[in-house]
Amino acid sequence: MTVTASASEPRPPLQRWLLVWAAALAAVLLLFLLQDSVPWAVDYPAGAVVPVADWVSALMGWIKSNLSWLTRSITAVLGVPLDFALNLLAKNFKIGHGADAYILPRLSWVGVCAVAFLAGHVVGGRKLSLLVGGCFLYIALFGQWTSAMLTLALISIAVPFCIVTGLFAGIWAWRKPWAERLIVSPALDLMQTIPTFAYLIPMLLLFGNSPVSAMIATAIFATPPMVRATMLGLSRVPLEISEFSDMAGCTARQKLWRVLLPSARPTLMVGVNQVIMLALNMVIIASMIGAGGLGYDVLLALRALKVGEAMEAGLAIVALAIALDRLSQAIAHKQAKGHVHQAVSPSFWRRYPNLTLAIAILAATTLLGLFVPAFAAVPKAITFTTAPLWKAAVNWVTINFFDAIEAFRVALILNVLNPVRAFCEGFPWLGAVFLLGLAGYQLSGLRLAALVAALTAFCAITGLWEKTMATVYLCGISAFIACLIGIPIGLMAARSDRFEKIVTPIIDTLQVLPSFCFIIPVVMLFRVGDVTAMIATIAFAVVPAIRYTNHGIRQVPPALIEAAKVSGCTPRQTFFRVQLPLALPEIMLGVNQTILMALAMIIICAMVGTRDLGQEVFIALSKADSGRGIVAGLAIAFIGIVADRLFSAWTAKARARLG
Q1: What is the pTM of this model?
Q2: Hey, CA dihedral for 205, 209, 213, 214, is it positive or negative?
Q3: What does the alpha-carbon distance between residue 277 and residue 283 come to, in Å, rounded to a whole number?
Q4: Burial state string for 282-306 with b = 16 or more CB within 10 A and e = fewer than 16
């Protein structure tokens, strides 16, 4: 009787889902085994490919033909401040024409370095002053000044545009939840997951090969963090502050600009920091469509396989990135502590003494440059070059360790990369759509299942399934190894304050390095190919796995840890049975971010010979084929969105289960 009753009880949800997944995997395996009978379910038939790329190309051609007046107007308007910044920092102002033209000099390098020292001292003290000023001085002394100032000029115009646009979009999304849900969030997801190269193609087609094209592409890529920071900052303003402004009789406009936005300033400044770093990263990539600057120097050196020149330009990018990152972080930290000007004086120089001093230094040194050439341009006599040293170092490593490096590379390709690639590229497209849809249904219901299945099917019906799976294979291996490295390091950092102090500067440095800088040393040692792409991607994507794991373990409530100790748990039991399970959702967020960063880096690695969707975008860029590039970019974006939605749903479910 007891046996009959237990047999009639419904199976637990976990056991039921295990049976469902076993049946689903068996069905996909059967599909693969019967591919001769149903070839259309394994390889998407070429005759059924939807010509989305042709439609996009036709649309872009129509826009170029019928709206050229608009693109020319935008180019003319944006070109004015951009030309001013370029002339001010990197070139000279030319007034007049021909022989009667008068040249006004650009800002003196001595003055810019002095202002960098001053800015660092004002917002962060002596240490920051030495760091920021030292970075600018390094750029000057190693002969990269003009290229660095071209890059800085583009950033100085793109970043304010991103901040203003992001601020207003964030305010609109915060005020209108329907707009945030239906318009802003999907748009931000696309903007952040479409690969950087895909931004360049329509810009090149519509605005030509010019710095304006590069600036617009940079602005599109770097705006999303400001939108998200604005929405987050406004939603975090305490309710009592909002109610107090209502009681004080503020209008809606006054409440927003005088109460809510000032209260959200620390979060907004974090968004500004992220905008600056993304803009710098994108400006380097945008050098391919006319931005010039340090990114162009790296590109030329990489194409010519000039190791030393590539490393010097790459290190100049690193120096500029570190200076801008630390400076913006210090300003955000100062804003968070509530440092404001207390004195109110009618005279400008008394209200802003440091700004006045900076302007005076720039003016004086630039005027001196008219009479003392050493102030106008960095004298070659005081510049250094390490290019021969870098070349010699790479040659030494290559000569002495060539056999070991080559053995490692070949073994990795034959035993790991090629088998995984063959498995992924041979996976039935219908089976992938079905399994991912089933995962979405299990995690969040029918809506997520439909979204995931539709985005996956898009990659097949556009004829890009093989390239998509090649991208998934390389991104998956890179993200998996990055997690294998990053999660244990994060666990060790969480358990040891001393180890955390060692790890933190390293991952901070890795986070500010532009993506180009990861490719340069690896390609010199391992040559072009999938191994180079994998190693560079692991180095680029490992940071979130470390940071989120460390943060997840450390944010477990101390009361729960004390309760475990009182219950008699050993430190090992407390860690594995209390801290780790509670930190698992946070760790999985880190895995999610690692996958997205790996996907972003894999696309850039198309420059070093990978054969995937990134290559499609790269070829489309070289041929100015907008349809091909945009569709391939959308396929990459959809891979990122599928991974993000599934991991986010899993994390939300885990958080709900843990309370």
Answers
A1: 0.78
A2: positive
A3: 10
A4: bbbbbbbbbbbbbbbbbbebbeeeb
